[in-house]
Amino acid sequence: MGIKEADSTQPCAHTAQSPALAGATAYPTRCSSHCCNFRLVNSDTNEKRGDELKLTILGNGAVRNGPNQAGSGYLIQHGNTAVLLDCGTGVFARLQEFLEPKNLQMAILSHTHWDHCCDLMPLRYLFCSRAATDPQASRPYLWLPPGGKAQLDTLSVLLQPHDGPMTKDFRSREYTPDTRIKLGDLAISFAPMTHYVVSYAVRVESPSCSLVFSGDTGPNAALPKFATGADLLLCEASCQGYIKDPRTWGHLTAVEAGIAARTAKVKRLLLTHLRHSLDPEVSIKQAQKEFPGPVEWAREKVVYTV
Ligand SMILES: [Zn+2]
Ligand SMILES: [Zn+2]
What we know:
Layout: E1 2-3, H1 13-16, H2 20-23, H3 46-49, E2 54-59, E3 73-78, E4 81-85, H4 91-98, E5 106-108, H5 114-117, H6 120-133, E6 141-144, H7 148-159, E7 171-174, E8 180-183, E9 186-192, E10 200-205, E11 210-213, H8 222-226, E12 232-236, H9 254-264, E13 268-272, H10 280-290, E14 295-297, E15 303-305
Parallel strand pairs: 4-5, 5-6, 6-7, 11-12, 12-13, 13-14
Antiparallel strand pairs: 1-15, 2-3, 2-15, 3-4, 8-9, 9-10, 10-11
Helix pairs in contact: 9-10
The chain binds zinc ion (2 copies).
């Protein structure tokens, strides 16, 4: 996995000393210390084979996002297949920077907290307008957690009664732990997590690589089991340090994200959903103490390849 565009031509001191250099052909990857954008990629990567999953961070924020930061939103592309994971605050605008929205085939919500779903409303109106001029135009699938359809429709009818329930403007479905979706060459599956509301992790697999998104969750045994062997774990790390009583808490710290990544034996860990007031560099260091592989902060508007 690497960043699409490196803006340095020479590695910094950290990268030059990286053990990864020893086994890698010198394709650039970003410095794990974040002081430059130089990057290293092994010569035998999916990127070179043209079978990579592209992951674009549209928004990495939590419920109170900071300036120029969006809520939860991740665009996954594989060939011409495009899937949006979560559609939180500001994600619709960001999506248009990377994809013509009519080319979006599917949106999936990990759960219906506001920072993960509120920009479904503008997305919905895009497809309403399109249907008005072209009734044959296809609408994207919208996959929701159990109970999600009723929640979104109740809310949308309350706020915009003249437009009816929101989910009719998509091909809406609710997934369960047993749901397996096939879209293009992608296989998508789900696992329930531990949060304040029903919340799921999502696993996306291409023929040669895999990515797991934790959604929002507290510590639990299901996450590392579900993420076992993934090439990339995109994991929430809302907090730092240790939580005194995880039974009353619905999020992970960076330490706990590192433990989940280590237990799952994933290849890389990408931290996201950090509270705006916290320093991502501290989170990276905390996760690195638990997880021996590469750890990065999911930077907005950066395209990662898996
Ligand atoms: Zn959240
Ligand atoms: Zn949440």
